[in-house]
Automatic annotation (TrEMBL):
GO molecular function: ATP binding; hydrolase activity; ligase activity; metal ion binding
InterPro entries, alphabetized: ATP-grasp (IPR011761), BC-like_N (IPR005481), Biotin_carboxylase_complex (IPR050856), Biotin_carboxylation_dom (IPR011764), Biotin_COase_C (IPR005482), Biotin_lipoyl (IPR000089), CPAse_ATP-bd (IPR005479), CT_A_B (IPR003778)
Gene3D superfamilies linked: 2.40.50.100, 3.30.1360.40, ATP-grasp fold, B domain (3.30.470.20), Cyclophilin-like (2.40.100.10)
Species per Swiss-Prot/TrEMBL record: Cryptococcus amylolentus CBS 6039
Protein name listed in UniProt: Urea carboxylase
Biased composition (Low complexity): 1137-1152
Stretches assigned to coiled coil: none
Stretches for region Disordered: 1130-1155
Annotated keywords: ATP-binding, Biotin, Hydrolase, Ligase, Nucleotide-binding
Record-annotated Biotin carboxylation domain positions: 2-466
Pfam families cross-referenced by the UniProt entry: Biotin_carb_C, Biotin_carb_N, Biotin_lipoyl, CPSase_L_D2, CT_A_B, CT_C_D
Cofactor(s) this protein requires: biotin
Domain ATP-grasp: 125-330
Length: 1231
């Protein structure tokens, strides 16, 4: 006989619950999972785990838990001897039980016959009647027709309940209070039963108006011996589904109640004995409170373990119902002896227990499920006897595929009052941030006088009025996100983030009485519509957007009182500016802090509300405000926005004649010839503003080892708000920009002008005003005085500072000593200094010196040092000039540099990791194909990055495979994007070189291994990118690591080594699933990296390296020239297409209203017409009806009709899909 092994045919908390009992009995467990559940904790908690369902059994179908054939196949494959179905899914499916037993495996549950007899409710009524169990007055069996239904209802009296015979969980039933309602609902109930349960049969029962739902837990040995474990009350129900349960029933504390309990439990046992019931089951009754003796009637028998079984266990110390089920399955006869099931053992009830089911759902929106990522999960204490059965933790994503229940909170008290108090304390101390939950809803129910008095009926929640302390998003505009001013200063590729226009958010907060750093809503181009469920005080600042409270016009830049039930509507931006900000008194409470800030970074789904822009239905918890003593206030002087902007800047790290020609410098400052500025492209967002204009002339022809384009550099740290040269495209970095990469940063925005980056819109023009850093403190004071004395002149789009003479270098200090590489200190903005060692080349000894230098600066603990961004040959230091001046910091930096010796004798502790890798995989190929369809069709690196790299290095087709798998890779830095590791092959003979994508990709798969110049990287999440794609491995990034428990957000550290071992795509999928489930972790070992040994290795292969580099140089130069020609052709074609689109747009639209003289609906920004949503003759139904979908800022922009055209007919559609439009261009006219 094979050893026992238990397969759990379920997921979530019940799977974990079963695993817990099995482990206590030393029974090995087997989990099944779908891809949607691959990271669910039951997968790693079990001893084995297998994907279920989907194509080839890969788990791709979320409905895999319902796939009987697939599960039976896994039972056979795994060698399971028992199957535990849990609740839901197939737990009451007789066919499933039969299939399991047919292969000689024990099913831990009732027999298939018992399931069938209890599964159809009209048949269950007949069995109950035979057992002498009271049944609700109703039809004798199924009702075949509406005519019969009317007749039966007339006999038993209204109201009646029409119930689907196959229904369950509150579904498939309808209360009818009159013949008219019965006629209206009879056929629809039948249809619903057929759709949900494949059973159209219905029957009728008398509906008891003031009913209590009381159920009895039973357990049978399958031989006719049945015991009960007392009752549970489950009267708190929404949509006939339980929310709060308790044991024992409060009604049964009186002498009469005790008699009712005895009769009810005996009835439940009689039913089980008649059926010779096997395993755990629950007999549910409806109790009529209005009857003088608390008459009760049979409702149904749930032939499985119940969700709420925990409260029975808590009030019966030592009871483990799941363990009883397993023990029965282990017995040779599959039946526990009566001596193991003694009724007297279960009669005592110890205290009182309450269970709250926590769902990700919105009680205010009809309990709509709310899937999403949980950014914070913190449970309050439940005491010694309580427990929390859950499957979620911080970082868990609740998918839309399954039941939204995330936890069962169970508490115990000596009395019911104590249990209620304990539960309220537990829920008060719990914190769940992410999707909306029913946590506050349950707290509110528990605090009602009705619940406290025990006077709850099954219909209580039908009329229960719940007002969450929140504002509800009715419509979210184009992009509305939570942002604050604090930002994040951890570096390593986690963007600073925060409000793009911190000035406007600061004022909004001051107007409502908050500190300037409190979080608010940032609305881009189009505002939100918000319903307030409690009184509040708000303010809206930023670019001009029309405001209305319940349709009444309201003013921006003013504090506004809003009463519970009122709606605030924020319209679309006017012709200037891009973003507006909403502050709420007290802030937004259900937004978690990630690395010190509540700001949303949508690029990595971090921070804010679920890491994303808001959508309709979101609830933002706020603090109710007292309006009785409200005094309005307004800001007297408002910033002047424009479509032409002057931005004060300082030299960036590459503002030097070494990189840029003098002509190139002038071009960067002025833009178009004659000083026309740079035009902002529609392809702009919070990460950066892409600028269109002339090509910049460089002082060099390529980027050396950084890449073939002169804008390329060996990867370096980026200053905040830098002008980054992405190939030939300048990108003015925004708040969500990367902090590290391989492109030149030529200018840095002065601190006092950072707010402007949040208000520049596509189509605007920008010119740069180069100023000395010494002038910035005074300009900052002017800005700060406006915040403290708002009557002073406001800031504007223009510059108030005269430009300095053209500064041609940013070098602050240069040092060259015998035996040491040259070091350069560069001014990189008014808050950044860059430290460089050696030439623009990859040199490991120099990287070691950079590391030692950074460690020495850190050890000094200087005040005012904010962060370091250390990369291959440089370190950029971010400092606060209010605490340490540039001069003082420079002095210390130079002093520490002078203390450095050589790197040859240095040794660094490191780890060697083993990572799986798929070379030239399908996922990377799909990203390349998407790039060719959406960005650029032809380039030297297309269609195959691997083939390009082989040619670019003068090597054969296996070059990429050899580079990945035949040498360790050394991690040199982490940054750019959420701790992306920059790395190189240690063997210089396998150190390939390649250019970056130009322009960059918008899609890259998670775990992609990339290469640009000589630097490799692992993309931590799916994202944009510019590196050549070599293959795929595991991501080292874990956003939700518990750092207070010693975990790290990344597996890797600087100077770690990675050894990749080859796997195929199918093997990788399995490894990745196990990795995300926590059951697989790459192995690592300790090692010491010795610089001398590395140099000796390089020296021993010097001739091979020299020959390799010679061939590499020849090949890359040839392909570089070819790429120059191909890119020029691409750029010319792009300019031609853009000019054609603009010409078409201008000729078609003309002046506003010119197309036929109708009322115009215009484009709010420069964009491309993606889809036309209305046609001539259509009637505008409401102001929020969208007329055209545009594409801009890498997202869809819906243009609403507006209230002034509601009820009018569309006269003409002026634009065509695919063409470009400018701000103000007419899209549609209406009569």
């Amino acid at each position: 006989m094979p050893p026992p092994k238990l397969l759990i045919a379920n997921r979530g908390e019940i799977a974990l619950r079963i695993i817990r009992s099995a482990k206590a009995l030393s029974i090995p467990t087997i989990a099944i999972f779908t891809q949607a559940d691959a990271a669910s904790p039951h997968v790693s908690a079990a001893d084995e785990a297998y994907p279920v369902g989907g194509e080839n059994g890969d788990g791709s179908d979320p409905k895999g838990y319902l796939d009987i054939d697939a599960i039976v196949g896994l039972v056979k494959k795994s060698g399971a001897t028992m199957v535990a179905p849990g609740y839901g899914f197939l737990s009451e499916n007789a066919a499933f039980a039969e299939a399991i037993e047919a292969i000689g495996v024990t099913f831990l549950g009732p027999t298939p016959y018992q399931m069938t007899s209890m599964g159809l409710k009209h048949e269950a009524r007949a069995v109950a009647k035979k057992a002498g169990v009271p049944i609700v007055p109703g039809s004798e069996g199924a009702v075949a027709s509406l005519e019969d239904a009317v007749k039966v209802a007339g006999g038993i009296g209204y109201p009646v309940l029409v119930k689907s015979s196959g229904g369950g969980g509150g579904m498939g039933m309808q209360v009818c209070r009159s013949e008219q309602e019965l006629v209206a609902n009879f056929e629809s109930t039948r249809a619903k039963g057929a759709a949900l349960f494949k059973e159209s049969t219905v029957f009728l029962e008398k509906f008891i108006t003031r009913a209590r739902h009381v159920e009895v837990q039973i357990f049978g040995n399958g031989q006719g011996h049945v015991v009960h474990m007392g009752e549970r009350e489950c009267s708190v129900q929404r949509r006939h589904q339980k929310v709060i349960e308790e044991a024992p029933c409060v009604l049964f504390s009186s002498e009469m109640g005790k008699g009712v309990r005895k009769r009810m439990c005996e009835a439940a046992v009689r039913l089980g004995e008649l059926m010779k019931y096997r395993s755990a089951g629950t007999v549910e009754f409806v109790l009529d409170v209005d009857s003088p003796t608390y008459e009760f009637y049979f409702l149904e028998l749930n032939a499985r373990i119940q969700v709420e079984h925990a409260i029975t266990e808590v009030t019966h110390p030592g009871l483990d119902l799941v363990a009883l089920m397993i023990r029965q399955g282990l017995s040779p006869s599959k039946s526990l002896p009566p001596s193991d099931l003694v009724q007297e053992d279960y009669l005592p009830i110890d205290g009182h227990a309450i269970e709250v089911r926590v769902y990700c759902e919105n009680p205010k929106a009809g309990f709509k499920p709310c899937p999403g990522q949980l950014h914070e999960v913190l449970w309050g204490s439940v005491g010694k006897r309580g427990r929390i059965d859950t499957w979620v933790k911080t970082g868990t994503t609740v998918t839309p595929h399954y039941d939204p229940m995330i936890a069962k909170v169970v508490v115990h008290g000596e009395t019911r009052d104590e249990a209620i108090a304990n539960m309220l304390t537990t829920l008060d101390d719990s914190r769940i941030i992410g999707p909306t939950t029913n946590l506050d809803y349950c707290k509110t129910i528990l605090s009602t006088p009705e619940f406290e008095a025990g006077e709850i009926y099954t219909t209580f929640l039908d009329s229960f009025v719940y007002a969450p302390p929140a504002m509800e998003v009715l419509s979210a505009g184009l992009s509305t996100t939570v942002q604050d001013l604090r930002g994040r200063f951890v570096g390593k590729g986690i963007p600073r983030g925060g409000a793009a226009d911190g000035l406007a958010l600061s004022v909004a907060n001051l107007l409502v009485g908050n500190g300037t750093g409190v979080e608010g809503l940032e609305m881009t181009m189009m505002g939100a519509k918000l319903l307030f469920h409690v009184d509040s005080v708000v303010a809206v600042t930023g670019c001009q957007m029309p405001l209305a409270i319940d349709g009444q016009k309201a003013e921006m830049w003013s504090s506004l009182p809003i009463r519970a039930g009122q709606t605030l509507r924020i319209g679309s931006a006017s012709s200037t500016g891009l973003r507006s900000y909403l502050a709420v008194r007290g802030g937004l409470l259900n937004v978690s802090t990630f690395e010190g800030s509540k700001s949303t970074f949508t690029g990595a789904a971090l921070g804010g509300y679920q890491g994303r822009a808001l959508i309709p239905g979101d609830l933002l918890t706020i603090t109710p405000s007292s309006l009785s003593s409200f005094t309005p206030s307004s800001w007297p002087s408002v910033p002047a926005y424009d479509n032409t902007w002057q931005i004060d800047v300082c030299p960036g790290p590459q503002w030097d004649e070494e990189y840029l020609s003098e002509e190139g410098m002038k071009t960067l400052l002025e833009g178009k010839e004659g000083g026309g500025g740079w035009k902002v492209s529609p392809a702009s967002n919070r990460s950066g503003l892409r600028l269109e204009g002339p090509r910049v002339k460089w002082a060099r022809t390529d980027g050396g080892e950084g890449g073939s384009h002169p804008s390329n550099v060996i990867d370096q740290g980026y200053p905040f708000a830098a002008l980054n040269m992405n190939g030939d495209t300048p990108v003015l970095f925004g708040v969500d920009a990367p902090d590290m990469g391989g492109f030149s940063c030529v200018l840095t925005v002065a601190t006092h002008d950072l707010w402007k980056l949040g208000q520049i819109r596509p189509g605007d023009s920008i010119s740069f005003n180069l100023i000395p850093t010494s002038s910035i403190p005074k300009l900052l004071k002017t800005l700060e005085s406006w915040l403290s004395s708002p009557s002073s002149p406001p800031p504007s789009a223009s510059s108030s500072t005269k430009p300095s003479e053209l500064l041609k270098t940013n070098v602050l200090h240069r040092s060259q000593k015998p035996g040491k590489p040259e070091t350069i200190f560069r001014s990189s903005g008014d808050r950044f200094i860059t430290y460089e060692i050696g030439p623009m080349a990859l040199d490991l000894p120099n990287r070691v010196l950079i590391e030692l230098w950074e460690r020495s600066i850190r050890a000094l603990s200087l005040p005012g040092i904010i962060s370091f961004s250390t990369c291959i040959r440089s370190c950029i230091v971010h400092f606060d000039p209010a605490q340490i001046s540039q001069e003082a910091l420079l002095k210390v930096m130079v002093e520490e540099d002078e203390k450095l010796g050589g790197a040859e004798g240095e040794e660094i502790e490191t780890r060697v990791w083993k990572f799986p890798a798929v070379v030239d995989d399908k996922w990377c190929k799909e990203a390349v194909e998407y790039y060719m369809k959406t960005a650029r069709k032809e380039a030297v690196y297309l269609p195959s990055n691997a083939d390009y790299l082989a040619k670019n290095n003068g090597l054969g087709p296996d070059a990429v495979y050899d580079m990945i798998t035949k040498t360790p890779w050394l991690v040199l830095a982490q940054g750019f994007f959420v701790m992306l590791p920059f790395m190189i092959p240690l063997d210089p003979r396998l150190r390939l070189v390649g250019q970056k994508y130009n322009p960059s990709r918008t899609k890259t798969p998670e775990g992609a291994i990339g290469l640009a110049g000589v630097i490799g990287a692992i993309y931590p999440i799916a994202s944009a990118g510019g590196y050549q794609l070599l293959g795929r491995t595991l991501t080292p990034w874990n956003a939700w690591a518990k750092e207070d428990e010693g975990e790290s957000k990344t597996l890797l550290s600087n100077f770690d080594q990675i050894e990749f071992y080859p796997v195929n795509e199918a093997e990788f999928i399995k490894i990745e699933q196990a990795y995300k489930a926590g059951s697989f972790k790459p192995t690592s070992s300790q090692k010491v990296f010795k610089v001398a040994e590395y140099l000796a290795f390089v020296s021993s292969h010097a001739k091979e390296v020299e020959e390799f580099k010679k061939g590499q140089k020849e090949a890359s130069e040839a392909l570089g020239k070819q790429e120059e020609e191909m890119f020029s052709a691409f750029q010319a074609d792009s300019e031609k297409t853009s000019a054609s689109a603009n010409s078409t747009s201008t000729s078609d639209t003309g002046a506003p209203g010119a197309a036929g003289g109708g009322l115009p609906i215009v484009s709010p920004l420069a964009a491309t017409v993606w889809k036309i949503l209305l046609h001539p003759g259509d009637v505008i139904q409401d102001e929020e009806q969208n007329v055209v979908e545009l594409e801009a800022m890498k997202t869809s922009v819906f243009v609403p009709a507006g209230e002034e055209v509601v009820g009018r007919k569309v006269k003409s559609v002026v634009v065509k899909e695919g063409e470009g439009v400018s701000p103000g261009d007419v899209l549609v006219t209406v009569e």
